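The instructor's notes for this session suggest beginning with a concrete chain rather than abstract definitions. Hand out the sequence below and ask the class to guess, before any prediction is shown, which regions might be ordered.
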Amino acid sequence: MSHEQMLAWLDRADAGQVQAAAGRLTAAAKAIREIAEELKVRPQWVAWKGEGANAFRTWSADLANSTLRLGDFSEDAATWLTEASGAIARAQASIPRDGARPSTPSSPDPSGTSPERAAQAAHEERVRQEAAAQMRKLTQTYAWSATQLNALERPKLPPLPDAITPDPTKKVLESTDRDRDGGNASSRFRT
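After discussion, reveal the predicted structure:
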């Protein structure tokens, strides 16, 4: 890959967008953890007794724990996105941008092997190699961050317990607007 191609590729990367996504995940983690704390407490306030109540409280405790793990997942994902964002910013700041020194007019060498041209070619190759090294660092950080993201444990939310899940074979009584307003649903919209 030429130096110009590396620069073009790197200049399209946006460390700010990656960091913004990390910030959103961090904010989401905070909100998710607050919800999990509510899920731990609120089911205890329900005035309900019996097998269904116990099943509901057990399920809600499991749900709260899974929700806490979801907050941890979000926070951990933000950490690895922040790492990738930093790698982009470091690469953009470190990559050499002076791919070639301007050639100085001198007596042209018809063979094209003047000492100036050879020095210029050597300089261009050093700059390209340095740019390639920066791109390798970025690639390695990307790969490491992706590996860490993929290794994060995805939380599994528990299904509703059978004791509080409606039986799908039984018809649930439906209440309609007609039942509530004597069949004149439009009466609710009169001004």
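Then share the key points. The chain has a mean pLDDT of 83. The helical segments are 3-12, 15-41, 51-94, 115-151, 177-181.
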